[in-house]
Amino acid sequence: MASQHNSLAEAAGPEVSLPAGKGHFKSDGLQLRLGILLIVLTGIGPSLLGNSYWEHTFQLVNIYIAVAVLQNFLFVDAGQKSFGQGAILGLGAYGLAIASGIHGLPLTVGVLAAVGAAMLGGLLFALPALRVQGFHLGFATLSAAIVFPQLLIQFDDVTRGINGISLYLPALTKPLVLGMSGLTLLVTAVPIAALLLHYGIRNARLGRRMRVAAESAEAARSLGVRPGFMRALAFMIVSAGTGICGALYVPTVGFISPQGFLVELSFTLFFVVVVGGRGQLLGPIIGIWVIYIVPNVLLVQLVEYRLLIYGFLTLAVVIVFPDGLVGTIEVRRRKRFQRGGGEQGFRLAPFTEMLEKIPPRQVPAEAAPILEVRGAVKRFGQVVALDGVDLKVRPGEVHGLIGANGSGKTSLLNVISGFSRMDGGSYSFRGRDVTRLSASSIARMGLGRTFQTPRIFTDLSVWDNIQLGLDARPTPLAPEMAALAERFKEAYGEDNPGLLAHGQRRLLEVIRVVFADPGLVLFDEPAAGLSPAERVEFSRLLRQLSKRLGMAVILVEHDLDLVWDIADRITVLETGSVVASGPPQQLARDPAVQHLFVGGAHA
Ligand SMILES: Nc1ncnc2c1ncn2[C@@H]1O[C@H](COP(=O)(O)OP(=O)(O)OP(=O)(O)O)[C@@H](O)[C@H]1O
């Protein structure tokens, strides 16, 4: 076995042709370093200079930076447009102030109360986010931010209303070293931790899967991701972090009241992210400098005009720099240094060259079907898209699904992958009835699919797009595949998928689903838009998937020559019913389907 693996690892060796060289697709690492530098500057700079006025002011600024960094993550990486983060900060602050300031509980309990209260608020935001998105979610969270200070006043027996709550912690504010207090160190460490959290999640499996859920719920579900769970998780992570910021806010200001958490704060935090550059790690920090530090701190005489300044700056940035300040620089940088596409674009050859050397995985001739569809019915109003369809697919079989436009092919793929529910009938996958299972659960059982329009994520590198498949795998890669994956990472880790031609995008999506190691793959018109050379490579891959990797494939394709060449069996649909099913040679003699092949080489 070991020697087989060695020879296979060599298969991914020098003769496999991959583009060389590094591009500069991502600048997260640089932005992270610059961000930390700026946070340290505002965090400990004033203490080192011994200026207590600046010290106090910038401590607050750093707390806002941490909240804005978390909001940026929520906004872009998780796709949740919350306008109510000021209220979550307030819940954290009040959690600590009520627990420790009013009831005299130990600080650890106070911090736990802060995090708990903020997470409770986050949960309330996540609930509408499970049902609504975009404008509606923004409206729900904005309403919460408007109502929050009113509630604080209303429940004054708990919150002390407009009288506010005081909590001074002298042990935290007394200088420890070089004029820096424990609070100074905390307000420096917390935004750095928030930034590292953003960077860490973004570059991990969780972040990639959140990003996909944010950009395409369908693609996410096809990779086994539950978009609702991802949204709720993002809200919980961000709320917990914002709760810690709220706890830190209390000793920083020493006194809190509803006045500190007006809707204006939530707006400012939102503006900060937009002006700095949505999704850029450094964005919220630059945003705070432009929107908050300059008008509020450095030009104090402008304070009474601050809402006007926020509004004006946001408008100006949205018009002149729609990607925000850091975002605009990033877009230019990317354009200048980007690579990929064209001749260097994504090709299947390295993959097929490697698979060629893998000994075929034997599938017993009598293996039970991996998929069995029984009497599938699907209606759209008066239209019957599927009218009692039966289908059996065995492991290692390429099953062609053909039929005229509107005959029900895509509808069948959609019900099999759990994207739409059958109105009648049932089906089992890997021997289990999955008729009522969600798309993401079915995907996790090993069913993969591609889409008519490839779902490629242009904010992720070409390699990261492939890695989404690896992220979805239940088992580790075989050594030879791992060796190839490493080479792909080297070759495409910094390539811009936005430069890929349509056919290359399609192939990229195909390789992504193959790396997820499904037992059954549904390909929806995979050859559309491929060049003749790409088509040849693709047919070779299809053969290898079934004969070498033992995957079952359902191939919906208008290119009948391709289906004829590759398929072990073909099912023909006509207005939602199966009119013929069998090996291609048998079908070509079937009078019911001969008209499909008329004029072709197979008649
Ligand atoms: N979401 C929908 N709402 C209403 N009708 C639909 C919907 N999806 C499909 N249909 C109808 O169901 C029938 C089958 O469509 P389907 O897309 O499954 O066919 P197809 O064989 O995949 O066609 P094509 O080759 O054009 O992709 C068609 O009459 C179509 O108009």
Total helical elements: 26
Provide mean pLDDT, rounded: 88
Strand arrangement within the widest β-sheet reads 10-11-12-7-13-14
Number of strands: 14
Low-confidence stretches: 1-14, 599-603
Morphology call: elongated
Question: Into which percent range does the helicity of residues fall?
Answer: 55-70%
**End-to-end distance:** 46 Å
Tell me about the biggest sheet? Answer: 6 strands, mixed
Q: Could you tell me the radius of gyration in angstroms?
A: 29 Å
If you had to describe this structure to a student in words, what would you say it looks like?
The chain is built from 26 helices and 14 strands. Helix 4 (85-102) runs parallel beside helix 6 (134-154), helix 9 packs antiparallel against helix 12 and helix 20 runs parallel beside helix 22. It has a six-stranded mixed sheet, sandwiched between helices. Strands 6-5-8-9 form a four-stranded antiparallel sheet, with helices on one face. Strands 1-4 form a two-stranded antiparallel sheet. A hairpin with a 2-residue loop joins strand 8 and strand 9 (432-433). It is elongated. Among the domains are: 31-262, no CATH class; 353-358 and 395-414 and 446-568 and 577-597, Rossmann fold (3-Layer(aba) Sandwich), CATH 3.40.50. The chain has helices at 2-11, 28-49, 52-77, 85-102, 107-131, 134-154, 156-159, 170-173, 182-202, 205-215, 217-222, 227-253, 263-276, 283-298, 306-320, 325-337, 349-356, 409-416, 439-444, 462-472, 479-492, 502-515, 532-547, 560-566, 584-588, 594-597; strands at 165-166, 175-177, 180-181, 255-256, 371-380, 383-393, 398-403, 424-429, 432-433, 447-449, 520-524, 552-556, 569-574, 577-582. The protein is of the alpha/beta class and 603 residues long. GO terms for molecular function: ATP binding; ATP hydrolysis activity; branched-chain amino acid transmembrane transporter activity. Its main location: membrane.
